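Input record, target 12 of the design panel.
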């Protein structure tokens, strides 16, 4: 054996083993730390993902809830529009029923007409025929029976055997008959009334001509939402011309009041409505329910506007005026119901009562009243009043130290009403007229609630 080979092998000492062990331990520790880091990173990623998806889910849930709420609001608005259509149909049915009832009451007159064989017999109905034609202009349209009276008298007059009518009477009756039948061009009817106004020296005949033109103009203006520059100013002018010739009929005054109210001349409108109401009290026999409802509604609404703008006639107390307005609106709502209006039709009148509670600063009463209206259908003015009442009541609750739940409920009402209003047609809101019924300090609130209308108009 070679001694040199034995000496080349170093003996493995305990130190070498210890160092090797320490190296392996260090490597193991490094692997454990790396593994721990990887696990921690994975945990952070996992937690982050959970949080991310949680908040995303919450956002989706919020968006879903918002979309569901928007859908619900849209359904309410659509349902409200359907209710309006049903109310319009109901009003037409009521008008037809009233016309049929009027004709039924005049059945005896119809039998008399059928038995009248000669022109001289028919001549006995002349004054009645002229009165029917006049009444047609003043808000009591002809029916099948009364139109027959007018037609027969006109035919008897035109036969030449008997001279029954003066020229103005003939023009009036033909114009009224043509207007009722609807088979003659409206320009022809208008020309007949214009002829009475311009070409006859008798003031009474001129007044009838002006009244007939006012009727035609109001019909057109009403189709244009009573726009002042699209018919309503002409209505007022013709009614004034009739009044200057000593013709004051409730329906003429109601047309004038409606136009003045829509324009914003609350004081003149109030006087016109009040005068119409006084005339109705003096002779209530021939007053229709529609005329009565318009008069009471007009007086109540214009009193609210006068109180809101601090323009009450001298000597009128504000609280007294508001109580009178409330009473007038209640009467108008009852008359509307008596005429056959549905709950929707009555709500159109009752919603105006909310403005009274706002001016009296009775927030709980305003909230209760507006809620009852809102359960019937969403109305822009009612929702505006409800939003304002909720704002003011929130302030009052905070000041009184009320519960958090009570305050949150007021916020919920504000959010809900604002959302519905933001989806409503601006024509329903009618911001200009709305502000006439509210104190000036609520202008900013109305601007906020009707902001989408400003955007739709291009910022004008």
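The sequence produced for target 12 reads:
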């Amino acid at each position: 054996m070679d001694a040199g080979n034995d000496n080349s092998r170093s003996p493995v000492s305990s130190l070498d083993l210890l160092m090797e062990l320490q190296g392996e331990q260090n490597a193991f520790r490094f692997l454990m730390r790396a593994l721990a880091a990887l696990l921690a990173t994975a945990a952070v990623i996992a937690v982050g993902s959970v949080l991310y998806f949680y908040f995303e889910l919450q956002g989706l849930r919020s968006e879903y809830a918002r979309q569901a709420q928007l859908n619900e609001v849209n359904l309410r608005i659509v349902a409200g529009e359907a209710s309006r259509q049903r109310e319009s149909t109901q009003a037409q049915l009521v008008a037809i029923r009233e016309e049929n009832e009027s004709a039924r009451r005049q059945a005896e007159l119809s039998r008399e007409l059928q038995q009248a064989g000669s022109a001289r017999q028919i001549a006995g109905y002349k004054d009645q025929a002229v009165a029917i034609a006049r009444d047609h202009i003043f808000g009591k349209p002809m029916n099948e029976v009364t139109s027959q009276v007018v037609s027969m008298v006109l035919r008897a007059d035109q036969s030449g055997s008997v001279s029954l009518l003066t020229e103005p009477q003939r023009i009036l009756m033909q114009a009224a008959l043509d207007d009722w039948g609807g088979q003659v061009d409206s320009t022809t009817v208008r020309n007949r009334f214009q002829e009475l106004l311009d070409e006859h020296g008798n003031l009474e005949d001129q007044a009838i001509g002006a009244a007939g033109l006012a009727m035609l103009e109001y019909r057109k203006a009403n189709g244009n939402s009573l726009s002042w520059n699209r018919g309503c100013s002409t209505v007022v002018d013709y009614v004034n011309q009739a009044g200057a010739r000593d013709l004051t009929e409730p329906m003429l005054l109601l047309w004038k009041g409606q136009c003045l109210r829509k324009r914003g001349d609350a004081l003149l409108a109030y006087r016109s409505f009040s005068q119409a109401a006084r005339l109705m009290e003096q002779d209530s026999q021939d007053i229709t329910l529609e005329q009565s409802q318009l008069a009471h509604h007009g007086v109540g609404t214009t009193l609210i506007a006068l109180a809101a703008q601090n323009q009450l006639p001298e000597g009128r107390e504000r609280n007294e005026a508001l109580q009178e307005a409330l009473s007038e609106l209640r009467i108008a709502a009852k008359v509307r119901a008596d005429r056959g209006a549905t709950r929707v039709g009555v709500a159109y009148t009752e919603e105006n009562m909310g403005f009274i509670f706002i001016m009296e600063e009775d927030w709980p009463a305003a909230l209760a009243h507006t809620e009852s209206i809102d359960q019937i259908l969403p109305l822009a003015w009612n929702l505006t009043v409800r939003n304002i009442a909720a704002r003011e009541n929130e302030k009052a609750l905070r000041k009184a130290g009320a519960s958090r739940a009570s305050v949150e409920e007021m916020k919920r009402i504000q959010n809900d009403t604002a959302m519905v209003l933001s989806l409503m047609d601006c024509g329903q809101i009618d911001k200009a007229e709305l502000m006439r019924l509210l104190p000036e300090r609520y202008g900013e609130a109305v601007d906020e609630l009707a902001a989408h209308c400003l955007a739709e108009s291009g910022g004008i």
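The chain has a mean pLDDT of 86.
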